[in-house]
C-alpha cells in the first residue's frame, strides 16, 4: 500500500508526537488569545491566600484542610499569618463584641481585592447564642461584607471546598474596569432584640431560701407527693404571713 505525502506526514505525526511542531501548520497550538480580565482573574482565582483566623470550633474543621487528607493546597490556597499578604478571610467561629474591632482591623489591613467567607451558623446569624447572649454578633455581615456563606454547625471541610469553588467562579467573572464603580456593600437585615432583664440567681442565699425548706403547695400537689409533717407547720406559717 503506497501512502501519499500527506498521509505519510500524518502517520509520522501520530507515531512521533514529540517531534517539533511547525508554526505555520500548528498555529493554534502556539498562540493563545485572551483578555486582560481573564488572565488577571485566572491568576487571582488560582492563588487565593486565606488568613489564619479562627475564634471557635469551626476553625478545627478549617485546620483539617491543611492536612494531607483534604490538602487544600491543590486549590492554590496558601495560609498566611499576616493580613498584608492575604486576600481571603474565613471567619471560622463565633464573633463577639470584643472581637469585632479586631476583625474589622484585620479586614481593613488586607489589600484589595479581598474576599470574605462566613463559616458556620454562629458567624452567619449568631447560632445558638442568638437568643440569649448579650455579646455574640448576630451576623458577621454587620461588620464586614461577606461574599459566600457556609451554613452548618460546624460545616465539614467539603463544604469549605464548595465555598471556595463558588468564590473562584465569582472572581472569574469580575472586571478591572467595574471594580471602582461596583463597590461591595453590607447586605444584611437586622431586627431589634427585646431582651428581658432577669433576676439574679446566684445570690448566696440558696440554702436559706423558703422553697428549699418547704416546697410550694402547688408543686407538691402537681407531683402528688406527701408533705412531711415537719414541713407542714412551715407551710402554714408561710400562708398565715401572706394572708395577714
Structure write-up:
The chain is α/β, with parallel strands linked by helices and 244 residues long. The chain has a domain at 57-172: Rossmann fold (3-Layer(aba) Sandwich). Helices cover 34% and strands 6% of the residues. The chain is built from nine helices and four strands, in the order H-H-E-H-E-H-E-H-E-H-H-H-H. It has helices at residues 5-15, 36-45, 58-64, 100-109, 121-124, 157-172, 210-213, 217-223, 229-243; strands spanning 50-51, 88-92, 115-119, 148-150. The chain has a four-stranded parallel sheet. Helix 5 (121-124) links the parallel strand 3 (115-119) and strand 4 (148-150). Helix 2 (36-45) packs antiparallel against helix 6 (157-172). The mean pLDDT is 77.
CA-based shape:
elongated
Taking the sheet with the most strands, its summary is: 4 strands, parallel
Structural class by sheet pairing and helices: alpha/beta
For this structure, the CATH topology of the domain at 57-172 is Rossmann fold
According to DSSP, the number of beta strands is 4
Beta-strand content: 5-15%
What is the helix tally?
9
Mean pLDDT: 77
- Using the CA coordinates, give the radius of gyration: 33 Å
User: What is the first-to-last residue Cα distance?
Assistant: 125 Å
Helix content: 25-40%
CATH 2nd-level architecture of the domain at 57-172: 3-Layer(aba) Sandwich
CATH class of the domain at 57-172: Alpha Beta
Order of helices and strands: HHEHEHEHEHHHH
Quaternary: single chain
Amino acid at each position: 500500500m503506497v501512502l501519499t505525502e500527506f498521509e505519510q506526514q500524518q502517520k509520522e505525526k501520530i507515531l512521533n508526537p514529540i517531534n517539533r511542531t511547525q508554526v505555520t501548520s500548528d498555529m493554534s497550538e502556539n498562540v493563545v488569545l485572551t483578555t486582560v480580565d481573564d488572565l488577571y482573574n485566572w491568576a487571582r482565582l488560582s492563588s487565593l491566600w486565606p488568613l489564619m483566623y479562627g475564634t471557635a470550633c469551626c476553625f478545627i474543621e478549617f485546620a483539617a484542610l491543611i492536612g494531607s487528607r483534604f490538602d487544600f493546597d491543590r486549590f492554590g490556597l496558601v495560609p498566611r499569618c499576616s493580613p498584608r499578604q492575604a486576600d481571603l478571610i474565613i471567619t471560622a467561629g463565633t464573633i463577639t463584641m470584643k472581637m469585632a474591632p479586631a476583625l474589622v482591623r484585620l479586614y481593613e489591613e488586607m489589600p484589595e481585592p479581598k474576599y470574605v467567607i462566613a463559616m458556620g451558623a454562629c458567624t452567619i446569624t449568631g447560632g445558638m447564642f442568638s437568643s440569649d447572649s448579650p455579646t455574640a454578633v448576630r451576623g458577621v455581615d454587620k461588620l464586614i461584607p461577606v461574599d459566600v456563606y457556609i451554613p452548618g454547625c460546624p460545616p465539614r471541610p467539603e463544604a469549605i471546598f464548595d465555598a471556595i469553588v463558588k468564590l473562584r467562579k465569582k472572581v472569574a467573572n469580575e472586571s478591572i474596569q467595574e471594580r471602582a464603580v461596583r463597590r461591595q456593600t453590607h447586605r444584611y437585615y437586622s431586627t431589634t432584640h427585646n431582651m428581658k432583664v432577669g433576676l439574679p440567681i446566684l445570690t448566696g442565699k440558696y440554702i436559706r431560701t423558703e422553697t428549699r425548706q418547704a416546697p410550694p403547695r402547688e408543686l407538691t400537689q402537681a407531683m402528688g407527693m406527701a408533705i412531711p409533717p415537719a414541713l407542714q407547720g412551715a407551710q402554714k406559717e408561710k400562708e398565715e404571713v401572706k394572708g395577714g
